[in-house]
Amino acid sequence: MKNTPHFAQLFLRLALGIGFILPVMDRFGWLGAPGSPTVGWGSWSIFVDYTNSLMPYLSRALANVMGIIATAGELIFGILLIIGYKIKLAAIGSFLLTLAFALSMFIFANYRAPFNYSVFVVSASSLVLATLPGYKWSVDGIK
């Protein structure tokens, strides 16, 4: 049982990291075409439409910029969490990114959307990960 906390943080890092990278792949159509059974967007254009629906106060061009920023953040945070490098910083960034996403969903989609997709859970999980005292089985844990 002494390795249980270490396993839990590793599992959390991998779950969050993969959970960030898969949607990025989906936006570029790498997981299938739009409308395929396991595809959320399937194209960048459909993703920007969704981003614009969560930020209706922005033009489509600015929604595209925000989509690029969010996608870059998700990709960077995902990779850092998986390899275990700068975990605390990546976890704080992913907390802030997913909190902003959850609040936008709550306000502009409907109050259930961030709960249906567990976005608040992902945000809280990132915050918990940021507060852990150490990260064994990571690049950060190498001494």
Q: Care to describe what's here?
A:
- It contains 6 helices and no strands.
- By secondary structure, the protein is mainly α.
- The chain has one domain.
- The two termini are 23 Å apart.
Key features of this structure:
6 helices; mainly alpha; 69% helix
Strand content: under 5%
* Helical amount: 55-70%
Through-space gap between termini: 23 Å
How much is the average pLDDT? 95
Structural class: mainly alpha
Q: State Rg.
A: 16 Å
Largest sheet: none
Number of helices, where a helix is a run of at least 4 consecutive DSSP H or I residues: 6
Helix/strand order: HHHHHH
Concise account of the structure shown:
Keywords: Membrane, Transmembrane, Transmembrane helix. The chain has about 140 residues and is an all-alpha fold.
